[in-house]
Design a protein that fits this description.
Layout: E1 2-9, H1 15-26, E2 32-38, H2 45-53, E3 57-62, H3 71-74, H4 84-100, E4 106-110, E5 116-117, H5 119-125, E6 131-133, E7 136-139, E8 142-152, E9 155-162, E10 178-181, H6 183-187, H7 202-210, E11 218-219, E12 229-230
Parallel strand pairs: 1-2, 1-4, 2-3, 6-11
Antiparallel strand pairs: 4-10, 5-12, 6-10, 7-8, 8-9
Helix pairs in contact: 1-2
This protein binds uridine-5'-diphosphate-glucuronic acid and manganese (II) ion.
């Protein structure tokens, strides 16, 4: 099965390095299709070059996040999560790609551009039947969040969640913690990410919409004593001295 990676990305001083690092991870993974959706009005030629040089199949799209409504008032209760418009545009592209490939099995993973991914997680997610879920480090105020798994007579079962923040979420996970068999996406053509969600509830709201009644989540990597994905965030570089020098005669792309 092909792994479809949906990656929102936006212009900032660390964008190209984050995309380059992500590319260097996924180019080592067989059979991936990278759907990159820029939070921008127009395609960036620099982003396009990174994709062209990456040696993986890709789709390069743009979808600008609409201006935040009443961001001030609503922030805590009704925030506009990041990357939503882009992931939804990615879902449209994914459904288009799937309609062309004759219903072959695939897996979709919403992979943000700044996280750190082990190669192992991609091999494990490839065989997800419906919804796979696993631990992610550095989220929810913990060293890691993830499913608590018991060995039942019929195999592993999720009996609870290792989570401390907003424990009332039905699916208390980060975006990096799950992937879906693409059948769920084609069978439910109206499923998209909600444009508004309570802070930190985007994932649980999406999963509540996309996981069919009665489907049990498949825990991956639970037998390991380590994590396979880290919710890292790239520190913005200090560029405070830039104004002191004359502009480069030939601008250097960073
Ligand atoms: C956490 C989750 O890991 C995200 O998946 C979730 O979208 C986000 O919270 C949220 O609920 O808002 P965090 O590390 O705080 O993530 O978010 P970012 O990594 O800054 O953004 C998530 C993705 O959206 C990234 O791929 C980023 O490049 C993209 N993004 C961010 C945009 O496309 N536009 C923006 O204005 C900001
Ligand atoms: Mn992030």
């Amino acid at each position: 099965p092909t792994i479809y990676l949906v990656t929102p990305t936006y212009a900032r001083s660390s964008q190209h390095v984050d995309l380059t690092r992500f590319c260097y991870t996924i180019r080592q993974v067989p059979k991936v299709h990278w759907i990159v959706v820029e939070d921008a009005e127009v395609h960036s030629p620099e982003v396009r070059r990174i994709l062209n040089d990456c040696e993986v199949a890709f789709s390069h799209l743009v979808a600008l996040t609409p201006p935040r409504e009443n961001a001030q008032i609503c922030r805590k209760v009704d925030s506009q999560p990041r990357g939503v418009k882009q992931r939804n545009t990615g879902l449209v592209e994914l459904r288009r790609l799937l309609s062309l490939n004759g219903g072959r099995d695939g897996v979709v993973y919403f992979a943000d551009d700044d996280n750190t991914y082990s190669l192992e997680i991609f091999e494990r997610m490839r065989h997800i039947k419906a919804v796979g879920v696993w631990r992610v480090a550095f989220v929810g105020g913990l060293s890691y969040e993830g499913p608590v798994v018991d060995m039942g007579p019929n195999g592993p079962r999720i009996s609870g969640w290792h989570v401390a923040w907003a424990t009332d979420r039905k699916y208390p996970v980060d975006m990096a913690a799950f992937a879906l068999n693409t059948r769920l996406i084609t069978a439910q053509p109206d499923v998209y990410f909600p444009t508004h969600a309570l802070d930190g509830h985007l994932e649980t709201d999406f999963l509540s919409a996309v996981v069919p009644e009665g489907v049990e989540l498949e825990p991956l990597g639970f037998e390991l004593d380590r994590v396979l994905v880290w919710h890292t965030r790239t520190e913005l570089p200090n560029l405070r001295q830039e104004g002191k020098l004359p502009p480069d005669r030939r601008p250097i792309i960073i």
